[in-house]
C-alpha cells in the first residue's frame, strides 16, 4: 500500500461516498472531510451519522474524523458527541479508536 496525501472533497462527494458499498471509499471520504471541510458542525453531523453505520471501517473513520475536527476547531457539540463515542467503548472492535478520539477531545477541547 502506498501513502496518498488526502485532498479536499465536496459535500456532494462525501454524501455519494458514504452511500457507496465500498467501505474504504466511505472511510476515506470521512477523513478527507474532517481534514478540509470548513463547517465543523456539518462535518460533526456527518460523523455522528457515520457512527451508526454497520461497517466497522466507516465507524472507525468517523471516530478518527471527530478527533481531527477537535484538533482543527477546538470545539464540538460534546453533549451529542461524547455519548456516541462512549457507546462504542463497549465494543472491542471500536474501543481503541474511541479511546483515541476521547484523548484527542481532551487535548484540544476544554471539557
Describe the structure.
By secondary structure, the chain is mainly α. The protein has one domain: Leucine-rich Repeat Variant, CATH 1.25.10. It is 72% helix and 0% strand. The protein has 6 helices and no strands. Helix 1 runs antiparallel to helix 2 and helix 5 packs antiparallel against helix 6 (92-108). The longest helix has 18 residues, at 56-73. The chain starts with 10 loop residues before the first helix and ends with a helix. The model has no long low-confidence stretch (mean pLDDT 96).
SSE inventory with pairings:
Layout: H1 11-19, H2 23-36, H3 40-50, H4 56-73, H5 78-88, H6 92-108
Helix pairs in contact: 1-2, 2-4, 3-4, 4-6, 5-6
> What is the mean pLDDT?
96
Main beta-sheet annotation = none
CATH topology: Leucine-rich Repeat Variant
Report the uncertain regions.
none
* Termini separation: 38 Å
Radius of gyration: 13 Å
List the helices and strands in order: HHHHHH
- Can you tell me the CATH architecture? Alpha Horseshoe
What structural class do you assign from the helix and strand content? mainly alpha
Strand proportion, as a percent range, falls in under 5%
What shape does the CA trace take? Answer: globular
What is the class in the CATH system?
Mainly Alpha
Number of strands: 0
Total domain count: 1
Counting DSSP H or I runs of 4 or more residues, the number of helices is 6
Helix content: over 70%
Amino acid at each position: 500500500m502506498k501513502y496518498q496525501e488526502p485532498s479536499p472533497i465536496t459535500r456532494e462527494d462525501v454524501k455519494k461516498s458514504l452511500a457507496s458499498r465500498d467501505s474504504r471509499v466511505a472511510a476515506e471520504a470521512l477523513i478527507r472531510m474532517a481534514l478540509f471541510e470548513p463547517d465543523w458542525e456539518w462535518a460533526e453531523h456527518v460523523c455522528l451519522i457515520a457512527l451508526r453505520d454497520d461497517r466497522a471501517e466507516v465507524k472507525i473513520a468517523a471516530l478518527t474524523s471527530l478527533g481531527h475536527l477537535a484538533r482543527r476547531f477546538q470545539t464540538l457539540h460534546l453533549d451529542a458527541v461524547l455519548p456516541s463515542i462512549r457507546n462504542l467503548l463497549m465494543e472491542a472492535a471500536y474501543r481503541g479508536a474511541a479511546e483515541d478520539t476521547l484523548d484527542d477531545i481532551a487535548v484540544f477541547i476544554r471539557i
